[in-house]
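Quick board copy: two proteins, each given as sequence then tokens.
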Amino acid sequence: MSDERARILTGLSDSGRTVADPAQDVRGLTVRDTSGEELGKVADLMVDAEADQVRMLRIEHGGLLGIGAETLLLPVEAVVTIADDEVIVDQTRDRVASAPAYEPELADQTGYYDNLYGYYGYTPYWAPGAGGQPWFPPRP
């Protein structure tokens, strides 16, 4: 990437696009940490349309039937595996619950993404030397 800055991410559901491999469409799956604690559900996949890459999971947690639920973003680097209709991540429930809040009006700002990647301890996808891992590990 020549700009070396974060790109605007758009929800896959809002983009009119689809996932090429339906097995990688994890929307609606439960997200758990490695100890089995539930973190929420994958509400959407946040896509970098310019690079044609999913960069983050949009997770909803709490609330009742979607009312009062909180929304947060989690970089796909956190995904350890996808198994048994669950997405397992390497962050704890408490860590994810305390993450910087997702506010759509701020989410287009590079500072928000810098803060989010720093909070989780991952190299931002736009930084030199960032891993080029596929957007999800394969299902076992």
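And the next:
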Amino acid sequence: MKIVVFNKPFDVLSQFREDEAHLTLAHFIHDPDLRLAGRLDLDSEGLMFLTDHGGLNQYITNPVNKKFKTYLAQVDGDVTEEALEQLRKGVELADGMTLPAKAIKVDAPEWLWERDPPVRYRANIPTSWIELQICEGRNRQVRRMTAAVGFPTLRLIRTKIGSIDLVRMGLQPGEQTEIEPLLYPDFKDVPEDKPYRSRSYVKKPGGTGGKPMHQKKKDGDANGGEKKKSGTKRIWQMDESEKPRRKTNGTTRPNTKAPRGRSRNGR
């Protein structure tokens, strides 16, 4: 399993497909085996990780596994304890109630890099910082949550995914590094990267799930040899003498009935 941690800069698209207006991940990541596990919006910054493991994306992003992602949000206004308590209980959004979050007010981080362009400045309205932890991944969720409690987000940086800490690694925007999964408890229960299993296969008690799907070879058997023919003839391949006869008790009469829809005299 390979995992690469990347610090996404502001105004970079979380995709490998080229874009005429913005930089994309293809400008920074050149390993064709890596796939993105968890996106960040164009105007968000910070921790992303990429992997060559097929099941890791779903494992990390599924809320059932409680892999909390930590964000630093600079919000418009001096955030109140009442607003933080709302975030902790869950916020009603257009697509439903959010799960309870972990939310605290923090000081402006001294380690944070400058953003280009900088966040708008208004002398008559202060800003404040929130550390927010969520285990969901809805579209623009943190921004919608802070706006719903009256404090719109001005700048958003993802700093952690589970125990992977961008600040501790010291990565600057655009920098990346490969990490060793065995050193992080987050990956000890990751399911194995196995072949696709048929949904129609019923899992037996104590079993290991569905059977792997293997494509059959059209021009031969599974070992690449000639295709074997069945040893049993079909009914249309048999001579009259080979066709099976129905066993009776000697009382069966010949069929003298006319076909359905026609009388015996042909009318």
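Board note added afterward: The mean pLDDT is 81.
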